Protein backbone atom coordinates (compact mmCIF):
# COMPACT_ATOMS: atom_id res chain seq x y z
CA UNK A 1 0.00 0.00 0.00
CA UNK A 2 2.93 2.34 0.71
CA UNK A 3 4.04 2.27 -2.95
CA UNK A 4 0.53 3.07 -4.15
CA UNK A 5 0.20 5.82 -1.54
CA UNK A 6 3.46 7.37 -2.68
CA UNK A 7 2.31 7.21 -6.31
CA UNK A 8 -1.02 8.84 -5.43
CA UNK A 9 0.71 11.56 -3.45
CA UNK A 10 2.87 12.40 -6.46
CA UNK A 11 -0.20 12.50 -8.70
CA UNK A 12 -2.08 14.76 -6.30
CA UNK A 13 0.79 17.25 -6.16
CA UNK A 14 0.74 17.53 -9.98
CA UNK A 15 -2.99 18.21 -10.29
CA UNK A 16 -4.23 21.58 -11.62
CA UNK A 17 -6.70 21.87 -8.70
CA UNK A 18 -6.05 21.16 -4.99
CA UNK A 19 -7.58 17.77 -4.22
CA UNK A 20 -7.57 15.69 -1.05
CA UNK A 21 -8.26 12.00 -0.49
CA UNK A 22 -9.72 10.88 2.81
CA UNK A 23 -8.88 7.22 3.45
CA UNK A 24 -11.05 4.81 5.46
CA UNK A 25 -8.43 4.98 8.24
CA UNK A 26 -9.02 8.71 8.60
CA UNK A 27 -5.68 9.61 7.01
CA UNK A 28 -5.82 12.43 4.44
CA UNK A 29 -3.62 12.63 1.36
CA UNK A 30 -3.10 15.62 -0.88
CA UNK A 31 -4.01 19.26 -0.37
CA UNK A 32 -4.49 20.66 3.12
CA UNK A 33 -7.03 23.19 1.82
CA UNK A 34 -8.66 21.26 -1.04
CA UNK A 35 -11.10 22.54 -3.62
CA UNK A 36 -12.29 18.96 -4.09
CA UNK A 37 -12.30 16.11 -1.58
CA UNK A 38 -12.82 12.42 -2.32
CA UNK A 39 -13.83 10.35 0.69
CA UNK A 40 -12.93 6.68 0.09
CA UNK A 41 -14.80 3.95 1.95
CA UNK A 42 -12.44 1.16 0.83
CA UNK A 43 -8.65 1.26 0.71
CA UNK A 44 -8.71 -0.78 -2.54
CA UNK A 45 -10.08 2.30 -4.33
CA UNK A 46 -6.59 3.80 -4.14
CA UNK A 47 -5.47 1.21 -6.69
CA UNK A 48 -8.32 2.25 -8.99
CA UNK A 49 -7.06 5.83 -8.87
CA UNK A 50 -3.44 4.81 -9.36
CA UNK A 51 -4.38 2.80 -12.47
CA UNK A 52 -6.35 5.68 -13.96
CA UNK A 53 -9.61 3.67 -14.01
CA UNK A 54 -11.70 6.79 -13.65
CA UNK A 55 -14.84 5.17 -15.00
CA UNK A 56 -14.64 2.73 -12.10
CA UNK A 57 -14.17 5.65 -9.73
CA UNK A 58 -17.29 7.24 -11.22
CA UNK A 59 -19.21 4.01 -10.64
CA UNK A 60 -18.05 4.00 -7.02
CA UNK A 61 -19.31 7.57 -6.61
CA UNK A 62 -22.70 6.64 -8.10
CA UNK A 63 -22.98 3.63 -5.80
CA UNK A 64 -22.15 5.73 -2.74
CA UNK A 65 -18.83 3.99 -2.11
CA UNK A 66 -16.90 7.23 -2.69
CA UNK A 67 -18.16 10.68 -1.71
CA UNK A 68 -16.99 13.79 -3.49
CA UNK A 69 -17.23 17.27 -2.02
CA UNK A 70 -16.67 20.35 -4.14
CA UNK A 71 -17.57 21.70 -7.60
CA UNK A 72 -17.98 19.11 -10.32
CA UNK A 73 -15.99 21.25 -12.79
CA UNK A 74 -12.98 21.08 -10.49
CA UNK A 75 -13.44 17.33 -10.10
CA UNK A 76 -13.34 16.92 -13.89
CA UNK A 77 -10.20 19.02 -14.22
CA UNK A 78 -8.53 16.79 -11.66
CA UNK A 79 -9.82 13.60 -13.29
CA UNK A 80 -8.48 14.54 -16.72
CA UNK A 81 -5.05 15.24 -15.23
CA UNK A 82 -4.98 11.83 -13.51
CA UNK A 83 -5.43 9.87 -16.75
CA UNK A 84 -2.25 8.00 -17.73
CA UNK A 85 -3.13 8.35 -21.44
CA UNK A 86 -5.88 9.59 -23.72
CA UNK A 87 -8.98 7.36 -23.44
CA UNK A 88 -9.15 7.25 -27.25
CA UNK A 89 -5.56 6.08 -27.74
CA UNK A 90 -6.18 2.35 -27.34
CA UNK A 91 -6.48 0.27 -30.50
CA UNK A 92 -8.41 -2.98 -30.63
CA UNK A 93 -7.67 -6.20 -32.44
CA UNK A 94 -9.81 -8.18 -34.84
CA UNK A 95 -11.21 -10.46 -32.12
CA UNK A 96 -12.37 -7.48 -30.07
CA UNK A 97 -14.09 -6.09 -33.17
CA UNK A 98 -15.90 -9.40 -33.73
CA UNK A 99 -17.05 -9.47 -30.11
CA UNK A 100 -18.21 -5.87 -30.34
CA UNK A 101 -20.27 -6.74 -33.43
CA UNK A 102 -21.89 -9.71 -31.66
CA UNK A 103 -22.64 -7.48 -28.66
CA UNK A 104 -24.24 -4.94 -31.01
CA UNK A 105 -26.41 -7.60 -32.66
CA UNK A 106 -27.67 -8.83 -29.27
CA UNK A 107 -28.34 -5.35 -27.90
CA UNK A 108 -30.25 -3.84 -30.83
CA UNK A 109 -33.33 -5.95 -31.27
CA UNK A 110 -36.67 -4.14 -31.41
CA UNK A 111 -37.48 -5.09 -27.82
CA UNK A 112 -34.04 -4.25 -26.37
CA UNK A 113 -33.90 -0.87 -28.10
CA UNK A 114 -37.31 0.05 -26.70
CA UNK A 115 -36.21 -0.95 -23.18
CA UNK A 116 -32.97 0.99 -23.48
CA UNK A 117 -34.70 4.15 -24.66
CA UNK A 118 -37.19 3.92 -21.78
CA UNK A 119 -34.30 3.45 -19.31
CA UNK A 120 -32.86 6.84 -20.26
CA UNK A 121 -35.61 9.07 -21.61
CA UNK A 122 -38.45 7.98 -19.34
CA UNK A 123 -36.46 8.71 -16.17
CA UNK A 124 -38.50 11.86 -15.40
CA UNK A 125 -39.72 14.63 -17.71
CA UNK A 126 -39.59 17.09 -14.81
CA UNK A 127 -35.96 16.19 -14.11
CA UNK A 128 -34.88 16.97 -17.68
CA UNK A 129 -36.92 20.17 -17.63
CA UNK A 130 -34.75 21.46 -14.77
CA UNK A 131 -31.60 21.72 -16.88
CA UNK A 132 -32.64 21.67 -20.55
CA UNK A 133 -33.86 24.76 -22.41
CA UNK A 134 -37.62 25.52 -22.48
CA UNK A 135 -38.06 23.50 -25.70
CA UNK A 136 -36.34 20.53 -24.03
CA UNK A 137 -33.91 20.08 -26.92
CA UNK A 138 -31.67 17.25 -25.73
CA UNK A 139 -28.90 17.50 -28.32
CA UNK A 140 -25.98 19.74 -29.25
CA UNK A 141 -26.84 23.44 -29.54
CA UNK A 142 -25.39 25.76 -32.21
CA UNK A 143 -23.53 28.77 -30.83
CA UNK A 144 -23.22 30.73 -34.06
CA UNK A 145 -22.73 33.78 -31.84
CA UNK A 146 -20.64 33.52 -28.69
CA UNK A 147 -23.10 35.65 -26.74
CA UNK A 148 -26.06 33.31 -27.15
CA UNK A 149 -27.85 31.79 -24.18
CA UNK A 150 -28.50 28.05 -24.25
CA UNK A 151 -32.12 28.61 -25.31
CA UNK A 152 -31.04 30.92 -28.13
CA UNK A 153 -28.35 28.47 -29.27
CA UNK A 154 -30.84 25.61 -29.34
CA UNK A 155 -33.21 27.65 -31.48
CA UNK A 156 -30.26 28.52 -33.74
CA UNK A 157 -29.54 24.78 -34.05
CA UNK A 158 -33.13 24.00 -35.01
CA UNK A 159 -33.08 26.76 -37.62
CA UNK A 160 -29.66 25.60 -38.88
CA UNK A 161 -31.07 22.12 -39.51
CA UNK A 162 -34.20 23.45 -41.24
CA UNK A 163 -32.07 25.71 -43.43
CA UNK A 164 -29.70 22.91 -44.38
CA UNK A 165 -32.69 20.81 -45.40
CA UNK A 166 -34.23 23.73 -47.32
CA UNK A 167 -37.60 23.02 -45.75
CA UNK A 168 -40.52 24.46 -47.73
CA UNK A 169 -44.22 24.91 -46.85
CA UNK A 170 -46.22 21.78 -47.53
CA UNK A 171 -43.24 19.41 -47.70
CA UNK A 172 -43.52 16.08 -45.91
CA UNK A 173 -40.96 16.06 -43.11
CA UNK A 174 -39.99 13.14 -40.85
CA UNK A 175 -38.18 13.54 -37.53
CA UNK A 176 -36.66 10.19 -36.48
CA UNK A 177 -36.33 10.05 -32.70
CA UNK A 178 -38.20 13.31 -32.20
CA UNK A 179 -37.57 13.63 -28.46
CA UNK A 180 -39.72 16.26 -26.77
CA UNK A 181 -40.70 17.70 -30.14
CA UNK A 182 -38.39 20.71 -30.40
CA UNK A 183 -37.42 20.28 -34.06
CA UNK A 184 -40.75 18.74 -35.07
CA UNK A 185 -42.79 21.72 -33.86
CA UNK A 186 -40.22 24.34 -34.90
CA UNK A 187 -40.22 23.02 -38.47
CA UNK A 188 -44.02 23.08 -38.62
CA UNK A 189 -44.41 26.53 -37.05
CA UNK A 190 -41.56 28.34 -38.83
CA UNK A 191 -41.25 26.46 -42.14
CA UNK A 192 -44.82 25.28 -42.74
CA UNK A 193 -44.05 21.59 -43.28
CA UNK A 194 -46.32 18.61 -42.76
CA UNK A 195 -44.34 17.02 -39.92
CA UNK A 196 -44.33 13.49 -38.55
CA UNK A 197 -42.25 12.41 -35.56
CA UNK A 198 -41.52 8.98 -34.11
CA UNK A 199 -40.15 7.98 -30.71
CA UNK A 200 -39.77 4.94 -28.47
CA UNK A 201 -40.38 6.93 -25.28
CA UNK A 202 -43.89 6.82 -23.83
CA UNK A 203 -43.20 9.99 -21.79
CA UNK A 204 -42.03 11.94 -24.83
CA UNK A 205 -44.98 10.73 -26.90
CA UNK A 206 -47.52 11.97 -24.35
CA UNK A 207 -45.69 15.29 -23.90
CA UNK A 208 -45.48 16.06 -27.63
CA UNK A 209 -49.06 15.02 -28.34
CA UNK A 210 -50.20 17.48 -25.67
CA UNK A 211 -48.05 20.23 -27.22
CA UNK A 212 -49.55 19.54 -30.65
CA UNK A 213 -53.03 19.92 -29.20
CA UNK A 214 -52.15 23.05 -27.22
CA UNK A 215 -50.61 24.74 -30.27
CA UNK A 216 -53.47 23.78 -32.58
CA UNK A 217 -51.17 21.88 -34.93
CA UNK A 218 -53.21 18.69 -35.14
CA UNK A 219 -53.73 19.10 -38.86
CA UNK A 220 -50.03 19.44 -39.67
CA UNK A 221 -48.06 17.53 -37.01
CA UNK A 222 -48.28 13.93 -35.80
CA UNK A 223 -46.24 11.98 -33.26
CA UNK A 224 -46.29 8.22 -32.85
CA UNK A 225 -44.65 5.45 -30.84
CA UNK A 226 -42.72 3.57 -33.51
CA UNK A 227 -39.34 2.00 -34.17
CA UNK A 228 -37.77 3.42 -37.34
CA UNK A 229 -37.43 -0.14 -38.70
CA UNK A 230 -41.19 -0.65 -38.55
CA UNK A 231 -42.33 2.65 -40.05
CA UNK A 232 -44.41 2.14 -43.19
CA UNK A 233 -45.74 5.05 -45.26
CA UNK A 234 -47.85 5.36 -48.40
CA UNK A 235 -45.76 8.24 -49.73
CA UNK A 236 -42.04 8.89 -49.10
CA UNK A 237 -40.91 12.02 -47.30
CA UNK A 238 -39.37 15.07 -48.96
CA UNK A 239 -36.99 15.70 -46.06
CA UNK A 240 -35.84 13.64 -43.06
CA UNK A 241 -33.96 14.63 -39.92
CA UNK A 242 -32.45 12.29 -37.36
CA UNK A 243 -31.05 14.16 -34.35
CA UNK A 244 -29.39 12.33 -31.46
CA UNK A 245 -30.72 9.02 -32.75
CA UNK A 246 -27.83 7.34 -34.55
CA UNK A 247 -25.97 6.79 -31.24
CA UNK A 248 -28.69 4.30 -30.29
CA UNK A 249 -28.68 2.38 -33.58
CA UNK A 250 -25.60 0.22 -33.05
CA UNK A 251 -22.85 -0.89 -35.40
CA UNK A 252 -24.72 -4.06 -36.41
CA UNK A 253 -27.82 -2.11 -37.47
CA UNK A 254 -26.16 0.95 -39.03
CA UNK A 255 -26.46 -0.30 -42.60
CA UNK A 256 -30.13 -1.16 -42.12
CA UNK A 257 -30.69 2.24 -40.48
CA UNK A 258 -29.46 4.21 -43.50
CA UNK A 259 -31.18 1.80 -45.91
CA UNK A 260 -34.46 2.39 -44.08
CA UNK A 261 -34.02 6.15 -44.29
CA UNK A 262 -33.26 5.84 -48.01
CA UNK A 263 -36.49 3.83 -48.42
CA UNK A 264 -38.49 6.50 -46.59
CA UNK A 265 -36.97 9.38 -48.59
CA UNK A 266 -38.20 10.34 -52.06
CA UNK A 267 -35.69 10.51 -54.93
CA UNK A 268 -34.13 13.97 -54.81
CA UNK A 269 -34.98 14.31 -51.11
CA UNK A 270 -32.56 15.28 -48.34
CA UNK A 271 -31.46 13.82 -44.99
CA UNK A 272 -29.86 15.61 -42.04
CA UNK A 273 -28.23 13.09 -39.68
CA UNK A 274 -26.98 14.69 -36.45
CA UNK A 275 -25.16 12.53 -33.90
CA UNK A 276 -22.22 11.93 -31.61
CA UNK A 277 -19.29 10.18 -33.27
CA UNK A 278 -16.17 8.47 -31.98
CA UNK A 279 -12.95 10.47 -32.15
CA UNK A 280 -10.91 7.45 -33.20
CA UNK A 281 -11.56 4.98 -35.99
CA UNK A 282 -9.60 2.29 -34.13
CA UNK A 283 -11.40 1.73 -30.83
CA UNK A 284 -14.88 0.54 -29.89
CA UNK A 285 -15.50 2.82 -26.89
CA UNK A 286 -13.73 5.21 -24.56
CA UNK A 287 -11.05 3.56 -22.42
CA UNK A 288 -10.27 4.13 -18.72
CA UNK A 289 -13.69 2.69 -17.85
CA UNK A 290 -15.61 5.67 -19.25
CA UNK A 291 -17.44 3.59 -21.87
CA UNK A 292 -18.49 1.00 -19.30
CA UNK A 293 -19.80 3.77 -17.02
CA UNK A 294 -21.99 5.23 -19.77
CA UNK A 295 -23.25 1.78 -20.76
CA UNK A 296 -24.26 0.90 -17.19
CA UNK A 297 -25.70 4.13 -15.86
CA UNK A 298 -26.72 6.37 -18.77
CA UNK A 299 -27.11 4.90 -22.26
CA UNK A 300 -27.35 1.09 -22.23
CA UNK A 301 -26.81 -0.14 -25.76
CA UNK A 302 -25.34 3.15 -26.96
CA UNK A 303 -22.50 2.86 -29.48
CA UNK A 304 -20.30 5.64 -30.83
CA UNK A 305 -19.03 5.06 -34.35
CA UNK A 306 -16.44 7.04 -36.27
CA UNK A 307 -17.69 9.42 -38.95
CA UNK A 308 -15.93 7.30 -41.58
CA UNK A 309 -18.00 4.28 -40.54
CA UNK A 310 -21.21 6.27 -40.78
CA UNK A 311 -20.32 7.65 -44.20
CA UNK A 312 -19.38 4.19 -45.44
CA UNK A 313 -22.77 2.73 -44.51
CA UNK A 314 -24.63 5.82 -45.71
CA UNK A 315 -23.00 5.47 -49.13
CA UNK A 316 -23.81 1.76 -49.33
CA UNK A 317 -27.49 2.59 -48.80
CA UNK A 318 -27.55 4.68 -51.99
CA UNK A 319 -27.45 8.07 -50.25
CA UNK A 320 -24.86 10.68 -51.21
CA UNK A 321 -23.17 12.88 -48.62
CA UNK A 322 -23.12 16.49 -49.81
CA UNK A 323 -22.02 18.28 -46.63
CA UNK A 324 -20.57 17.31 -43.23
CA UNK A 325 -20.01 19.65 -40.28
CA UNK A 326 -18.30 18.88 -36.97
CA UNK A 327 -19.93 20.72 -34.04
CA UNK A 328 -17.70 19.19 -31.33
CA UNK A 329 -16.87 22.45 -29.47
CA UNK A 330 -20.53 23.45 -29.61
CA UNK A 331 -21.42 20.28 -27.74
CA UNK A 332 -18.81 20.94 -25.06
CA UNK A 333 -20.41 24.31 -24.42
CA UNK A 334 -23.92 22.80 -24.49
CA UNK A 335 -23.01 20.14 -21.95
CA UNK A 336 -21.37 22.62 -19.61
CA UNK A 337 -24.54 24.70 -19.76
CA UNK A 338 -26.61 21.63 -18.85
CA UNK A 339 -24.18 20.68 -16.10
CA UNK A 340 -24.15 24.18 -14.60
CA UNK A 341 -27.96 24.29 -14.66
CA UNK A 342 -28.22 20.95 -12.86
CA UNK A 343 -25.56 21.87 -10.30
CA UNK A 344 -27.48 25.05 -9.48
CA UNK A 345 -30.55 23.11 -8.33
CA UNK A 346 -29.42 19.78 -6.91
CA UNK A 347 -31.98 19.78 -4.10
CA UNK A 348 -34.85 20.35 -6.52
CA UNK A 349 -33.51 17.63 -8.84
CA UNK A 350 -33.36 15.13 -5.98
CA UNK A 351 -36.93 15.92 -4.96
CA UNK A 352 -38.15 15.42 -8.53
CA UNK A 353 -36.36 12.08 -8.87
CA UNK A 354 -37.72 10.91 -5.53
CA UNK A 355 -41.22 11.33 -6.94
CA UNK A 356 -40.37 8.63 -9.50
CA UNK A 357 -38.44 6.15 -7.34
CA UNK A 358 -37.17 5.40 -3.85
CA UNK A 359 -34.65 7.69 -2.16
CA UNK A 360 -31.62 5.48 -2.80
CA UNK A 361 -32.28 5.06 -6.50
CA UNK A 362 -33.03 8.78 -6.88
CA UNK A 363 -29.72 9.70 -5.23
CA UNK A 364 -27.84 7.28 -7.48
CA UNK A 365 -29.50 8.70 -10.61
CA UNK A 366 -28.60 12.24 -9.61
CA UNK A 367 -24.96 11.32 -8.93
CA UNK A 368 -24.79 9.51 -12.28
CA UNK A 369 -26.13 12.48 -14.23
CA UNK A 370 -23.83 14.94 -12.46
CA UNK A 371 -20.82 12.89 -13.55
CA UNK A 372 -22.24 12.14 -17.00
CA UNK A 373 -22.95 15.76 -17.96
CA UNK A 374 -19.70 17.21 -16.62
CA UNK A 375 -17.63 14.25 -17.82
CA UNK A 376 -19.12 14.45 -21.31
CA UNK A 377 -18.46 18.19 -21.42
CA UNK A 378 -14.85 17.49 -20.54
CA UNK A 379 -14.69 14.74 -23.19
CA UNK A 380 -15.96 16.95 -26.01
CA UNK A 381 -13.75 19.81 -24.88
CA UNK A 382 -10.68 17.58 -25.08
CA UNK A 383 -11.60 15.93 -28.38
CA UNK A 384 -12.38 12.47 -27.00
CA UNK A 385 -15.68 12.52 -28.90
CA UNK A 386 -17.10 14.51 -31.79
CA UNK A 387 -20.52 15.59 -33.09
CA UNK A 388 -21.24 15.53 -36.80
CA UNK A 389 -24.11 16.77 -38.92
CA UNK A 390 -24.22 14.86 -42.20
CA UNK A 391 -26.34 16.30 -45.00
CA UNK A 392 -27.14 13.71 -47.66
CA UNK A 393 -29.37 13.34 -50.70
CA UNK A 394 -31.09 10.44 -52.38
CA UNK A 395 -30.13 11.07 -56.03
CA UNK A 396 -33.06 11.13 -58.44
CA UNK A 397 -31.03 10.42 -61.58
CA UNK A 398 -32.22 13.62 -63.28
CA UNK A 399 -29.36 15.24 -65.21
CA UNK A 400 -31.28 17.91 -67.12
CA UNK A 401 -32.44 20.46 -64.55
CA UNK A 402 -31.20 23.79 -65.85
CA UNK A 403 -28.53 25.47 -63.73
CA UNK A 404 -28.57 22.54 -61.33
CA UNK A 405 -27.58 20.04 -64.04
CA UNK A 406 -26.03 17.00 -62.41
CA UNK A 407 -27.06 17.78 -58.84
CA UNK A 408 -29.75 15.05 -58.95
CA UNK A 409 -31.51 16.81 -56.05
CA UNK A 410 -32.39 20.29 -54.85
CA UNK A 411 -29.04 20.74 -53.12
CA UNK A 412 -27.35 23.96 -54.34
CA UNK A 413 -23.84 24.20 -55.65
CA UNK A 414 -22.55 25.98 -52.53
CA UNK A 415 -23.30 26.36 -48.83
CA UNK A 416 -24.26 30.02 -48.81
CA UNK A 417 -27.97 29.17 -48.60
CA UNK A 418 -27.43 27.75 -45.08
CA UNK A 419 -26.51 31.11 -43.58
CA UNK A 420 -28.32 34.40 -43.24
From TrEMBL:
InterPro entries: CFA/CMAS, CMAS, SAM-dependent_MTases_sf. The keyword Methyltransferase applies. One of its GO terms (biological process) is methylation. The keyword Methyltransferase applies. Keywords: Lipid metabolism, Methyltransferase, S-adenosyl-L-methionine, Transferase. It comes from the Bacteria. One of its GO terms (molecular function) is methyltransferase activity. Belongs to the CFA/CMAS family. This is Class I SAM-dependent methyltransferase.
Amino acid sequence: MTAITDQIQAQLRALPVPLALQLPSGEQLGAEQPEVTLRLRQASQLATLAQGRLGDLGAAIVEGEVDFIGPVRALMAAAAAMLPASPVAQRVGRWAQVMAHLHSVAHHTLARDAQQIEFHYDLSDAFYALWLDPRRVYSCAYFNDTGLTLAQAQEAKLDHICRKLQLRPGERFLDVGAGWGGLLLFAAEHYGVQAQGITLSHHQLAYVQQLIEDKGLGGRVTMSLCDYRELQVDQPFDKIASVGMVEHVGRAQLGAYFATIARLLRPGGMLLNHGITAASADNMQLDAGFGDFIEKYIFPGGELLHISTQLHELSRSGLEMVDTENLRPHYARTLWAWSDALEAQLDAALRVLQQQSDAERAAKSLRAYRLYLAGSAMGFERGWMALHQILAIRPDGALDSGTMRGAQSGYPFNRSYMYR
